[in-house]
Write a structure and sequence with these properties.
Elements (H helix, E strand, L loop, with lengths): L10 E4 L2 E4 L10 H5 L2 E3 L2 E4 L2 E2 L2 H14 L8 H14 L5 E9 L13 E9 L6 H6 L1 E5 L21 H12 L4 E5 L5 E4 L3 E6 L2 E5 L8 H12 L4 E4 L11 E6 L3 E8 L2 E2 L4 H14 L2 H6 L1
Parallel strand pairs: 8-9, 8-15, 12-13
Antiparallel strand pairs: 1-2, 1-7, 3-6, 4-5, 4-6, 6-7, 9-10, 11-12, 11-14, 14-15, 15-16
Helix pairs in contact: 2-3
């Protein structure tokens, strides 16, 4: 049996102090729990170095502003906290989770004076997967829920509440034998997966949905840069589901997924090939610490 997350023998950075994970507690009356007034990041450390740490810290701060609160730490302080937790936990290849939320001073829709808390947790996560296995491709279901209209939700923030429909959709996909689910947007266009961005390939060109009702992921932007560096055209546009039969390859990107091939989405099938394999290799190289990358 895996050790529950709250019983791990490591430490969490909580409001400027290192606290044993088992002793790190918050009130059940916390606003962030009742009203989802929380923002977070998902990051990854490779060889002890957090990939694009500052970009993630900046997005955390920006997400909080979208939810109408200010994180009481600078980007540099958040970066330092993440490094400290990794070092204290003696972790090299790890997942990094900073989170900020409104506290428990008031419990109602309005909570403008509640204390803003910040925590950083890390846990071991092997950094590389078997490339051959990942290139075979995963199977995706088609989610019932859709990404909301930007006029109805703070879609461009990495906010906890936006992941409610993602959890439901991923659970349903897993129960049906799929690894994940692809979500459409409120107008029925292709959007993303439950925790990853999605890309398609046709005639040597990459097509990906415009990220205006979901997060334009940091892994997504990295992969777009890598593709363009290799003179592969990337087209960001509206994609309708009926177009999927015309694409030859498909892959998803994210902190957890990195670059992972897709072999099937509901009734559509794809054959992972050259461009997906190349971007998997290029991304693996890009995330390595500079010394290791130079030696590779």
């Amino acid at each position: 049996m895996p050790v529950p997350f709250d019983q791990r023998a490591d430490v969490i950075w909580f409001d400027g102090k290192l606290i044993a994970t088992a002793d790190c507690k918050i009130s059940v009356l916390t606003h962030g729990l009742h009203y989802a007034s929380a923002v977070f990041e998902g990051e990854r450390a490779y060889g002890g170095e957090i990939f694009k740490s500052t970009a993630h810290s900046e997005r955390l701060k920006n997400s909080a502003k979208v939810l109408d609160f200010e994180i009481p730490y600078s980007v540099a302080e958040i970066d330092a906290a993440k490094r400290l937790v990794l070092e204290q936990n003696n972790q090299k290849d790890a997942y990094v989770r900073p989170i900020a939320w409104r506290g428990s001073e008031a419990l109602g829709v309005s909570a403008q004076t509640n204390t803003i808390h910040v925590a950083v947790a890390t846990w071991e996560w092997p950094s590389y997967f078997d490339p051959a296995q990942r290139l075979k491709g995963i199977r995706l279901d088609l989610a019932d829920y859709r990404r909301p209209d930007p006029k109805t939700a703070p879609c461009l923030a990495k906010a906890a509440g936006l992941y409610m429909i993602c959890t439901i959709s991923k659970h349903r996909a897993e129960q049906r034998g799929y690894a994940d689910a692809m979500m459409l947007d409120w107008q029925g266009r292709v959007a993303e997966c439950t925790g990853a961005n999605i890309f398609f390939i046709k005639d040597g060109k990459i097509h990906t949905p415009i990220a205006d009702c979901f997060l334009a992921g940091i892994t997504r932007s990295t992969v777009i840069e890598l593709a363009r560096h290799n003179n592969i055209e990337v087209i960001e546009r509206r994609i309708m589901p009926e177009e999927l039969s015309g694409f030859s390859e498909c892959f998803i990107t994210g902190t957890a997924a990195e670059v992972t091939a897709v072999s099937e989405i509901a009734n559509w099938t794809f054959t992972p090939a050259r461009i997906t394999a190349q971007l998997m290799r290029d991304y693996t190289h890009a995330v390595q610490p500079k010394g290791k990358a130079a030696a590779a």
